[in-house]
UniProtKB/TrEMBL annotation, chains A, B:
Binding residues for Mn(2+) 2: 15, 75, 97, 149
Protein name: Probable manganese-dependent inorganic pyrophosphatase
PANTHER family named among the record's database cross-references: BIFUNCTIONAL OLIGORIBONUCLEASE AND PAP PHOSPHATASE NRNA (PTHR47618), CYCLIC-DI-AMP PHOSPHODIESTERASE GDPP (PTHR47618:SF2)
Binding site for Mn(2+) 1: 9, 13, 75
GO cellular component terms attached to this protein's record: cytoplasm
Source species taxonomy: Bacteria, Pseudomonadati, Bacteroidota, Flavobacteriia, Flavobacteriales
Compartment list: Cytoplasm
Any Pfam family the entry gives: DHH
């Protein structure tokens, strides 16, 4: 029988890649035949975690139906964030912590979503429920997912459960949460040697509301100027993406991980909707969003609401 | 703060009603303020369980947004099977064992689905995970849900977990699974004093595939003739529903709980699709489906497939 493929979303972040690894480890430990794969190459932050815990980079796929009938999704459920032929596959399981949208199956499945900060916090529960021990390197990767998604517990998406899980995993992995955590996040802010196209695709998600196509890309930094010194180049690249993909709205969210604020760059015909959504006025397509760090909790819900009210 | 309302699907069956009761009990035990309600009156089988375990009938609602902001769904997720104003409400949790379709949220939520025979089997796990003791009468209602959904373990949807859960719950409730189980199922087959309209609405679900509106009603019996002696009356009532609701296809599935076979009555413009779906030829709108007892596992998947291939 062909292997069940397990993967996170397109433009994978650290949670997407490490959750595929940890959930596949768990599934294999309880007797399934699975392989973790990725829908894109790891970003610098994820690569830092993989190197630190001596784990091989995952095989990248763009289609799955040629090699398997069944897949399991981690850290996403919306079909437009998944493998291109997702509609042709049987989805055996989903482990996620996002809203549910544009997702459907023909058959009943295992679906486990909780409103926590990171998929790994849920996967830790599953390890316990199945009485499977977590090897130190897997625990380290799971910890990395939590640090990344919660910005070292600073994101409003972070829950008590995430913090507790992170400390438990750190002790199995044998690392100091704060020291390792800041090193991991900083590894992801190396922007200087990257082209605009690359910066836009590092961690980006698309969604549709009432027929409007929206894309929200996010970049972490330790200084807004590291990104905005490339503003002209970024605007060109965003406009190119808008015209190719027909986006109505493109938000680039640049998040300062030290101050926990974001600066957004907004383009597209529906840009005024972003102004309504956040109660801001764009100046030269820019605005500061004080205290905003979470795309899932602070960007997508107000955008969705503003788009639905149109 | 207003109470969180918890309910199962429209045209509630025993699992829909008893799962609202048991999940609400659990939520209240862990500190939430919830009330179990129903989207319809209990059928005879459910009423037998409620009477046996001395539980009050649930309040029936048709709208929820006038009295609460948040709801939790059990035993369903598809919006067309839910309360009429579901799109205006925050869905805090879903506990279900069906496929996922026509379901979406703006925010992350708790979603727990497993491919088991009954929602109560999942709720039993949740009681254990939260270390909450189950009172005997709640255990009895949970057991009733499992017996009803699995036709006393004869349905192909029934898993080892359901059987184990049922025996565990029977021992808490202090009843014999087989004796109580057959009494419960028989209580649901009292057809003689019911009008056709009533029989069609006892346990019916609607869904849409590729723009085609489908309704599948199911009736349990101990003899097909008990139902088919009212065939003319049933055809009239089905045709009336088809014209009012614009169904493309209406299936009445009559299931003999002693023999584990079903006889279907099929009407609507898309009736030939049902013939393709099950590889049958309808005679006077009827056909026998040998060994078919489960709408979820043996009726809806082939129908969905045949409708998608059109």
């Amino acid at each position: 029988m062909s292997k069940i493929l397990i993967f996170g979303h397109l433009n994978p972040d650290t949670d997407a890649i490490t959750s595929a690894i940890s959930f596949s480890y768990l599934q294999n430990a309880i007797g399934k035949n699975t392989e973790p794969v990725a829908l894109g190459i790891p970003n610098d932050e994820t690569q830092y975690a993989l190197d630190y815990f001596k784990t091989k980079t995952l095989r990248v796929i763009t289609k799955a139906s040629e090699e398997t009938l069944e897949v399991m999704l981690v850290d996403h459920n919306e079909f437009q964030q998944s493998v291109s032929d997702i509609s042709d596959l049987t989805i055996g399981a989903v482990i996620d912590h996002h809203r549910i949208s544009n997702f459907q199956t023909v058959n009943p499945l295992y679906y486990r979503a909780e409103p926590v900060g990171c998929t790994q916090t849920i996967i830790l529960k599953l390890f316990k429920e199945n009485h499977i021990q977590i090897p130190p390197e897997i625990a380290g990767l799971m910890l990395s997912g939590i640090i990344s998604d919660t910005l070292l517990f600073k994101s409003p998406t972070c829950t008590e459960e995430d913090i507790k899980a992170a400390h438990e995993l750190a002790s199995i992995a044998g690392v100091n949460v704060n020291v390792y955590g800041l090193d991991l996040l900083k590894a992801g802010t190396n922007i200087s040697d990257k082209k605009a196209e690359e910066l836009l695709s590092m961690d980006a998600k698309s969604f549709e509301v009432d027929g409007k196509k929206v894309r929200v890309a996010q970049i972490n930094c330790v200084d807004f100027n590291d990104v905005f010194c490339k503003k002209a180049e970024l605007i060109n690249a965003i406009n190119k993406e808008i015209s190719i993909q027909n986006y109505d709205l493109f938000l680039l969210v640049v998040t300062n991980i030290l101050d926990s604020d974001s600066k957004i760059l907004v383009l597209g015909n529906a840009a005024p909707i972003a102004e309504n959504a956040f109660g801001i006025t764009l100046h030269e397509n820019e605005a500061i969003l004080k205290g905003v760090v979470s795309r899932k909790k602070q960007i997508i819900p107000p955008l969705t609401k503003a788009l639905s009210n149109k």
